[in-house]
Specification:
homodimer, 512 residues, alpha/beta, Aminopeptidase, five-stranded mixed β-sheet, 14 helices, 35% helix, 20% strand, globular
Chain lengths: 512, 512
């Protein structure tokens, strides 16, 4: 019996080994393919980035959806656009692999953050290739012709280059590479591409409910959003922060007043707002709102260990961003991102610079962003901010106040509550997640890190908490991709990694 | 001897009385003229307001200067454009009256505040007549034809309607009225119109020095800037506040950062700025900068008495502006304006509203306005603000910091100091000033008030302190003319008062 066991073990070992070799071969084939076809891949990427994709631009979003699903369809994948009324469609596709015992859900979002073109070096939807980052003195390059050599340090600039169209380009390249080399996939694949993630994915829950029958065989979801680690090492991420936000407008007189005739008599909205914001957070970054840190769920041992194993990128980041110290200066970034944050995303009152005039503006507005960690409820966190504002003597309104309201309350703030969603975290010990980590290691040459949570946000709670399915994130973009900001870009080395990564993920051996 | 004295006294009395009657007759003639020619005066005013007059728009300013001097020249007045290199011209004109023993200098500025057209109901240089104030539901009207009835509550909207083109229209109407009725002037008149008052009159001192020989016979200067009292009563004003300002920019990372990946680790410029501004002034309006109130020159008895005689307009103003209380709530506006003020004229960081994105902006900027009272030096007051900022731990730079500077100082602020000038006040007991007050009473039907200082600013110190000549201000514009703000306007009743006023000023009896 022992020899039979040994034989069986040998057969299994050889089978697993050969499958593992198959995964390495698949990655090699993808690498060879992208080395031979780099210029075309880059040009196709630029074409994809030239389609304006702000979620509120319905026509633009639909063009993206049609274009992208056509690209997969051309690779013989069954595609359809799932629709619920009033929302951008979900791009849905399916690859059923004979004999596969596992189904992977691949989530991508094809919409991008709103753009303020005046702050971009080039128009955000006219992609430009650069020899290096623009602030580092990079020069614009022509789009490469077929035989041109590609430098992996080149960057492609354009909205959504990093967030989140790169995985699409990676999938398509892998499918082409596998078709060329006859490499089979080892899991069923479901593509599920969101069209309003940057608008907070307000209908994603509806989509999941409406089309549950199309996704309920998925064993694990894979996201590719967010950047790799700031050390440039690939990472496997087990969670995200949640996100919400709100806008505050405080009021002075019901019109702009001459700062001479009324200065030192009329309230100054900019001063009121400054005092209100200063009461919320001190200059060292500590949030002073009562209860803001109270609901944070403590980290487990696994997470603490993973954190401790992360490279210390703080000095590099500070040097790169021109910062003497981080917000509080006494904790590494990995740890800081496991706490909630309160950010002044925008301030506006009257005018500054050339347009500044000697007036007391009638309003001052702040846009606040809040990032949430496991344990924080988005509505509860906004309630805490509102309670804090009330405690400063403010009367809260939801529309601009009328004269009666103005004459009744000395301090009035209009609060517009944003949407959002909670944080999510997947168990770091899950076997299938361990498999994913092996694939990431294959693609990265054993360089990958494990991270308990990204600082950024994705609506993972819909998958982890509603569908009760594990989610992992395998980011592709460089950490300095200017995600959500002007001059968003992708470093080509990161696109190449993305291709290798999906080659490894699509050819994972069966579970042990 | 007694009878001779009596006779002389009678002759003098009769002479003075007849001269005083002559002044009343002149005002009556001006009133009759404006009643008969109101529509034309309004149309001419609209033509004047249609000439863009922002001081930095050199071509526009020169067009104004040519057009305005032509208007006076057409009334047979010697006009010339005084010029110093690089500055808008001074429009200069002179009326020499045979036998006159007194010369009045008439200062007007023909430039207007910069405009942000997106915030105006109509384009700022396309004047529109309204049946009432726009916020009170006024309707736009056609420009009146010659025989149309004019409602004095109508308002003409356009940049500089109130600040400061109305006196020009008043002068021209008075000159036409006097020409039609053969009414002689009783003083020599010098017109002296500034072209960059709203830019801080940076070259007015040069002009006064260069062309001193053309103005040194002036006995008293008359300004018409600023509004009448908020009670709508005309006023004679003996001083102004000074003005200065500065712009502050605080820095976070050298680029916008994703608020997820860096939120709670990177400094947030909006928070830093809010804390800095909150440290300068509390929410009740008290400036916390050390020394800010220390150099204020105390008021004299005359000034206290004049202040006490002013109508209480605070309840009316609060009702009109939708304010429960004034900044501190415990002192009338007249008193508050005799103290220096610190105003947040503008705030800017990232974006708010639809364009708000989940980033940590790299900078936050505040534009500060400072009004000064007698005793405050503009440079000293800015020095106090800078010292306060240093005391909050900031390193001050004058240009955007380079990487080395960023890596050396944790808190960096760029300060751009604006120009400006000190306050000025004329002795309320001066005999010639008393004469002016009589003229104001004649034009106003004995309704006028005496005010120690306007809240607003004019470069009167050049006249009171450099030329050592008294200055008084006889404002014309309604208090709610939206001076310096969008939808600037003039109430026609105030234009009519301006015409009556200049009729009285141009025909003052010789000094007692």
């Amino acid at each position: 019996m022992k020899s039979v066991s040994l034989l069986l073990a040998c057969i299994l070992y050889s089978s697993i080994t050969s499958l593992s070799i198959a995964q390495h071969n698949a990655v090699d084939a993808a690498q060879a393919y992208r080395e031979a076809n780099g210029p075309k891949i880059i040009r196709d990427f630029a074409t994809l980035l030239s389609l304006p994709n702000v979620a509120s631009d319905s026509a633009g979003i639909h063009k993206n959806a049609e274009y992208i699903s056509d690209q997969y369809r051309m690779r013989n994948i069954q595609m359809e656009l799932l629709k619920v009324p009033g929302a951008p469609p979900i791009i849905y596709g399916r690859i059923d692999v004979p004999g596969a015992t596992r189904t992977l859900g691949i989530y991508v979002h094809y919409d991008g953050q709103p753009v303020d073109p005046s702050r971009w070096t080039h128009p955000p939807f006219e992609p430009v290739l650069y020899s290096a980052p623009i602030p580092a003195g990079g020069n614009p390059l022509e789009m490469p012709a077929d035989a041109d050599r590609i430098d992996p340090e080149w960057r492609l600039y354009g909205r959504s280059a990093g967030d989140d169209k790169a995985p699409i380009v990676a999938h398509l390249a892998v499918l082409d590479a596998f078709a060329a080399s006859n490499i089979p996939l080892t899991s069923n694949i479901v593509f599920f591409f969101d069209g309003e993630e940057e608008a907070g994915s307000p209908r994603l829950g509806d989509y999941i409910e409406t089309f549950k029958h199309k996704i309920d065989d998925i064993d694990l979801w894979i996201f590719s959003d967010g950047p790799v680690h700031q050390s440039r090492k690939p990472q496997l991420v087990f969670g995200v922060r949640g996100v919400t936000g709100m806008e505050l407008t405080v009021y002075g007189a019901n019109r702009s007043l001459h700062s001479g005739h009324y200065g030192n008599w009329s309230p100054v909205p900019g001063t009121l707002l400054a005092n209100l914001l200063a009461s919320m957070k001190d200059a060292t970054g500590k949030v002073l709102i009562e209860g803001f840190y109270d609901t944070v769920e403590p980290l487990g041992d696994e997470e603490r260990e993973a954190l401790a194993a992360l490279p210390d990128v703080d000095p590099f980041l500070r040097e790169s961003f021109g910062l003497v110290q981080s917000e509080e200066g006494n904790a590494p970034i990995g740890e800081r991102l496991l706490m909630p944050s309160l950010t002044v995303r925008g301030l506006s009152s009257g005018n500054v610079g050339e347009l500044a005039r000697n007036v007391i503006p009638s309003t001052a507005t702040a846009s606040l962003g809040i990032r949430l960690v496991k344990g924080n409820d988005p509505e509860h966190m906004k309630d805490l901010v509102e309670q804090h504002i009330r405690d400063q003597g403010y009367h809260i309104v939801r529309e601009d106040p009328d004269l009666n309201t103005r004459l009744r309350y000395a301090r009035i703030v209009k609060i517009t509550r944003g949407g959002g969603y909670p944080a999510a975290r997947t168990d770091m010990n899950l076997p299938l997640a361990q498999q994913i980590f092996k694939a990431v290691q294959v693609a990265s040459g054993d360089q990958a890190l494990r991270v308990p949570s990204l600082g950024g946000s994705l609506p993972l709670y819909l998958f982890t908490d509603i569908l009760q399915k594990p989610v992992v994130i395998v980011p592709i973009a460089n950490h300095d991709n200017n995600q959500h900001a002007p001059d968003e870009n992708l470093r080509l080395a990161n696109l190449w990694y993305g291709i290798d990564l999906y080659a490894a993920l699509f050819t994972m051996p069966p579970e042990d």
